[in-house]
Design brief:
256 residues, alpha/beta, six-stranded mixed β-sheet, four-stranded antiparallel β-sheet, 9 helices, 29% strand
Length: 256
């Protein structure tokens, strides 16, 4: 696996500088969380990493190559994106939706046993096996989000990028998804997440990039980045930081 690198990325949207000289090396085998207040540039940075947006300056690089220049099929096998929107515009069942994640791997002979095994594993990982035959339109928002996560997992990308993957999930499924994403990283692949919940970020992140107004406030190991002073600068809030009896780090907002 190779690093996914933000190399001095700059981006302007609607006349506003949303990313300003962002540089960071995302490493395989680790979960990196992008954090910051609304409008900080998190989703824009993720879109640049996924080649959905072309930076005006700098580049997102995979193995040294500009992601924009990588063959689309090769890039789709290397980078899987779970977008923030849970919209699905086809009236299909969940298994078919998840199977779409295998398209970059399929050759001239169509679906293989490896494809079927990957879909089954992804459904199980997202706790969606029981919903495999259900139409997507009949799912709740949280169930739809898990189905879309399963679609990305089925593609077995080297890099899994997710924008607010915990949105609409109940607490139990939030913990399940975090555990699955940690498992993806534990298998040697890279995971980059946009999150809003500081506590859950502290629980899952190996590394963190803290943004404010399109610039990096702090980046590096999560425990070094997610400090009270850095969080106060990025969010304008005071927090309490500690550890649960189980050893999990927590971050609790206490005042503006």
């Amino acid at each position: 696996m190779t690093d996914l690198v933000a190399d001095a990325i700059g981006l302007t949207l609607g006349g506003k500088r949303v990313l300003d000289n962002i540089s960071f090396a995302f490493r395989p085998g680790r979960v990196t969380v992008l954090l910051g207040a609304n409008g900080a540039g998190k989703s824009s940075l993720l879109a640049c990493l996924a080649a959905l947006r072309r930076p005006e300056t700098g580049a997102a690089r995979l193995g040294g190559d500009d992601v924009q220049a990588i063959d689309r099929r090769v890039r789709a096998r290397a980078i899987g994106l779970l977008p923030q929107s849970a919209d699905v515009h086809w009236d299909i069942d969940v298994a078919t939706l998840v199977g779409l994640g295998r398209f970059p791997h399929r050759g001239r002979w169509g679906e293989t046993q490896a494809d079927r095994d990957a879909v089954a594993a992804a459904l199980a990982a997202a706790d969606m096996t029981a919903f495999a035959a259900r139409g997507v339109e009949r799912l709740s928002g949280g169930e739809r989000g898990r189905a879309l996560l399963a679609r990305v997992l089925a593609g077995e990308p080297d890099w899994l990028l997710a924008d607010e993957p915990l949105a609409s999930l109940d607490p139990a499924h939030q913990l399940d998804v975090l555990a699955r994403l940690r498992g993806v990283a534990g298998g040697g692949r890279g995971v980059v997440l946009v999150l809003h919940d500081l506590h859950l970020a502290a629980r899952v992140a190996d590394d963190a990039v803290l943004l404010k107004d399109g610039r990096v406030v702090a980046s590096g190991a999560a425990e070094d980045v997610l400090t009270a002073p850095a969080i106060a600068e990025a969010y304008g809030i005071d927090v309490e930081i500690g550890h649960t009896p189980q050893g999990h780090r927590y971050i609790l907002p206490v005042a503006r």
